[in-house]
Every structure is written in C-alpha cells, then in structure tokens.
Known about the structure:
Bound molecules: flavin-adenine dinucleotide, flavin mononucleotide
Number of strands: 19
Number of domains: 3
Low-confidence stretches: 18-38, 135-145
Strand content: 15-25%
CATH superfamily of the largest domain: Flavodoxin domain
CATH architecture of the largest domain: 3-Layer(aba) Sandwich
Largest sheet: 6 strands, parallel
Distance between the termini: 71 Å
CATH class of the largest domain: Alpha Beta
CATH topology of the largest domain: Rossmann fold
Number of helices: 13
Amino acid sequence: MTPRWIAAACVVLGWLLLCGWAWRGVRRRQAQALAARQGVDASPSQDAMLVAYASQTGYAEALAAQTADALRAGGLTVWVAALGQLDVARLAGYRRILFVASTYGEGDPPDAAAAFAEHAMQTRTAPAAPREAAQSIGLAICAASPQPDAHAPLAGVQYAVLALGDRDYRHFCGFGHRLDDWLHDQGATPLFDLVEVDGGDPAALRHWQHHLGLLAGRSDLPDWQAPAYESWRLARREWLNPGSQGGPCYLLTLTPPDTGMCAWQAGDIAEIGPRRERGGPLQPHREYSIASLPADGVLQLLVRQMRSADGGLGLGSGWLTGIAQPGDDIALRVRSNRNFHAPQDDRPLILVGNGTGLAGLRALIKARRMAGHRRNWLVFGERNAAHDGFCRDEIEAWHRDGTLARVDTVYSRDQAERRYVQHCLLEQAERVKAWVDDGAAIYVCGSLQGMAGGVDAALRQMLGDAPLQTMLHDGRYRRDVY
Ligand SMILES: Cc1cc2nc3c(=O)[nH]c(=O)nc-3n(C[C@H](O)[C@H](O)[C@H](O)COP(=O)(O)OP(=O)(O)OC[C@H]3O[C@@H](n4cnc5c(N)ncnc54)[C@H](O)[C@@H]3O)c2cc1C
Ligand SMILES: Cc1cc2nc3c(=O)[nH]c(=O)nc-3n(C[C@H](O)[C@H](O)[C@H](O)COP(=O)(O)O)c2cc1C
C-alpha cells in the first residue's frame, strides 16, 4: 500500500470513529431527554425542578414538555412526570414544582390522574392561612404572603399551576383549581397565581411563559408557537350512513403533504384548522381521532356532520363534510395522545365504542393486526343495522381472518327497547371478567354523553369499583371520549 493510500485509509477511519462517537453522543442525549420527559427515575432533588402534568388527550403533556424545555434553556435541571406517577412524598422532595393540568367531565381530573385525586388529594391538612394573591417577583414570593405551616406535608415546596380548560364547560378549569387549593392546604407556596387557559388561548400561554422566563432567568425565550399545520389533500369523502336517523357520517381520506407522510400512532389525534368558506381564514382548531395508520399511506377520519338548531353547520365538521371538496387542501397537524396508544404487549384488548368512536378503535385494531396481536374483542354501537353499519365489510373481514376474536354490534333502535353497548357488556359479564382476569385492557372511544358513563357504570357493576379504579390507574382502562 502506498503512503497516500495509508493516509486516505486513516482519514476514513478517523471520520468513521468521529461519526460513531457523535452518534453515541446523540443517542445518549436522546435517552437522557426521553428519561427526563418520562420522569423515569426522577429521584427527588432539591436542585431539580419538577413539571407534573395531568392530561387526557395529550395537550397538557405537550405543554409540560414545552415548559420543561423553556426552563432548561435557563440552565435549570428539570424532570417531567405524569401526576399519576407521583405521591405526596415524591412531591415533597422538590423545592419547586410546576403543574399543567386539564379538566374533564364535571370538573374532574383526567383519567390518568384520577387515582392521585382520589388518594393523595383526599388527605387534607388543616386549611392553611387564607390566601392572598401571589405576586411573582423573580423567584421570590411576595413578602406579604401568609407564612405556611412549617409542619404541613408540602411546606417548603413552591408551585404554580397552569390550568387547561374550556369556558363552554360549567366547571371551567375545575381540576386545576382543585389542585391549586389542595397544594395550598398542604402548605405549599404559590410562585405566582394560577394561570387559566381557555381552549389554548395564546395570551394566557404568553402569561405563563413570562413567568417561566423569570424562573429561568431569561428574558429572551421565544413565544410558543402552536405547532404548524401541514397541508393535506382531501382525496375522498364517503357518506357512510345514507338514510340514517342520525347525523350524516363520513369517512374522509387525506393524502400527505408535499413534505411527506408524518408519523403518528394509533390513538393519536388530528387537529384540523377549519375555514368558514373555501379560501377563508383559518378558525380555531377542532380535534378528530385518526382512523388509519401511516402504513395505510393516507390519514383517515370518521366525521359526523353537526348542525345547530337553526341549521347552521358546525365549524369543524361543516368544513370537513360540507364546505371543503375533494381536491381541496386541509390544514392539519397531528397531536400525540399517549393515553390512547395501543398496549405494547399482546394482552387481550376489549374495544368499546359508538358512532364516530369507531375511528380511534379502527386505528387500534389496525395496529394490533400489524403487531400480530389477535386477542381483540370489538363492541360497537350505532342506531340501525340497515343504515349505520360503519365499515361493516372491513370489520367482518377482520373477524373472519382472526384479527378480531369476537365482534358484537349493538343497534339501539332495531328493537322496541333501546339497547346500547353497555347492555351488551352486562349480558356478557362473565366473558368480560374472564378477559379481564386474563389481563385484558379496556379501551372506550366515542360519546361522552350516555355511552362513556353507561359503560363505566356497567364495568363498575361487573368488576367492582376498586378493581376498575386500579385498572384506570394502571392504564388498563382508557378512554377517548368527547
Ligand atoms: C379527543 C377528541 C376526539 C374527537 N374525535 C372525533 C371524531 O373522530 N369524529 C367526530 O365527528 N368528532 C370528533 N370529536 C368532536 C369534534 O372535535 C367536534 O367537537 C365536532 O365535530 C363538533 O365540532 P364543530 O366545529 O363541527 O361544531 P361547533 O361549531 O363547535 O358546534 C358544536 C355544537 O354546537 C352546535 N352549535 C354551533 N353553533 C351554534 C349556535 N349558534 N347555536 C346553537 N348551537 C350551535 C353545533 O351544531 C354542534 O352541535 C372529537 C373531540 C375530541 C375532544
Ligand atoms: C369530554 C370533555 C370534557 C371536558 N370537560 C371540561 C370541564 O369540565 N371543564 C373545563 O374547563 N374543560 C373541559 N374540557 C376541556 C379540556 O380540559 C381542554 O380541552 C384541555 O385543553 C384538554 O387537555 P388534554 O388534552 O391535556 O387533556 C373537556 C374536554 C372534553 C373533550
């Protein structure tokens, strides 16, 4: 070998070693970031800050991650954890904790935080001194704040709450406020007043970021931008229920943007930027469960057209099912919804839903099929078999090829008395118990009104309150209801 060849080989070898070293560094940093995000081994530490989130459909979790990133930009060590993974002792190990919490139902916590709310938050100490508005001055608390009881469980902890909600609900930010009150009663001291966010209001988020800037010692933190929409093409729209007594329901097929297919998992949500007319400005987003997998090459949605009493089209559903036409561009972004991702193992899965809830269940069944996990039982409800058998051919094919071990379809109006999915579950209580004893998880998708409550009551009757609560806590009972 000539010296020139030897020199060239050395350069290539050096380059490969450098790449390997850099790659290991990247992997290590990725692993650290993931661990920090998931709160893995988040051993309490006085120096580190904790960002705890309570999220049902992923928005609070996403904002918790952004909060942590903003604080890290100021050089702070920050852990992120779901509230459901924490207890009072763990909280007490941190000096500063930021909470990002959404609200569901009648001012309730998200499912994954239900056990925390039920157990930890039931422990009330003697109410702390009455509150005065906290005024953040950098990291210090306004000297006028009442002195907390030094023996209270969370004395010495400073906290703030970002409460997510929607003013259309009666108990606006109800859980965030409950959490705030409870923290106060436990002797924790507010860093600044609770920040309420109505439907992702950018002004409220800027207010929160302002406080993060003070905590991080940075005045130059960039404003949070909502993730950018991408332009998907509405390729096809099939009317699934002509002649139905219910509102028209459509299967929409969207083809990817020019930038290529983005990644998502079964259970994730598409946020759509609707327009009031073709070419008009984008309106506040609406959420739809994704009904397909990236492997399908298209993104599909099942959308029910909504109308007000005066016949006006609903903003999001009207845009998708009436105003936009095949060939039009649809502004869409995908939001991760970890709470509704498929189990990673091959445990049995009971999938329960009604109406457009089939969307989320369909994506899950497809994911299970791809993974070769075949112990799946679908219980699906609609109004009439003659008109509302959404995706019937596909479901029957999955039943025939063993993807679905069992299928029950329940049509509420095909007989004199109303019959719903919860009745079907109750009739098969022994089978439900046997599946649960075998390790099954239960996933529920569809209507909050009627269905979710009815299914919950039926499961409590069959399995018992405490065992179902444990399943909720362990992620074996998951809901994506709206
Ligand atoms: C996590 C999640 C997943 C979802 N997945 C799906 C899904 O897969 N498929 C699906 O179809 N939906 C889904 N939804 C519901 C969806 O996001 C929308 O809420 C739904 O499409 C209605 O929105 P809209 O903009 O069409 O109606 P809006 O304009 O928001 O109106 C809401 C309701 O109020 C009525 N209304 C509107 N204006 C008036 C008025 N002036 N006076 C009286 N009444 C009025 C409308 O008719 C409608 O019934 C999901 C929701 C969530 C939170
Ligand atoms: C079924 C359902 C029930 C809700 N109930 C309430 C409520 O009672 N009070 C409230 O302020 N917001 C309520 N919201 C709004 C959510 O709190 C809000 O959309 C929040 O941003 C969701 O965050 P997440 O994705 O982290 O769960 C509800 C939303 C849904 C879909």
